[in-house]
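Encode chain A's predicted structure.
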Amino acid sequence: MSNENAPEMDLEMSPEMALETSSMDADARKRASDWLGGAGLRPTRQRMTLAELLIGDGHDRHVTAESLFESVQATGASVSLATVYNTLRSFTEAGLLNEITVDGTRSYFDTNVTDHAHFHYEDGRVVDASKGPLPLARLPEIPEDYEISTVDVVIRLRQKRRV
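Encoded structure for chain A:
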């Protein structure tokens, strides 16, 4: 239903906005392509779509396979949930992502692969808790012929109880 008195809406992008969007898209594609290439992964259409969503804006993020799948759907791209799961595994095996397991049923994937701790909130959010390695005073004795590959620190938070 149209309103004769309503102002006309300009649905077209101005040339400046189109250039800025095109430049941002080109930057995201380049960032994604370099990210994949640096890990020796071929930049397939699906990998590029997911890589652009993960690191295209240059910011680190924590995603689940489901949340990334929802982001893919919002773009209109065609990537199945199974492909998202498989690609997140490939990215993790290639060293592009760290997997953070917060309980036995939920994993988050972190684009920041440096050593750092995480906060896990009751509402499901996962955020970085530190900007670098967390000093650990004592670790258990390591069995002979083994070495520590990683130490994951997830600090679970809940709202303080009011008394």
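Strands lie at 62-63, 98-103, 106-110, 118-121, 126-128, 154-157.
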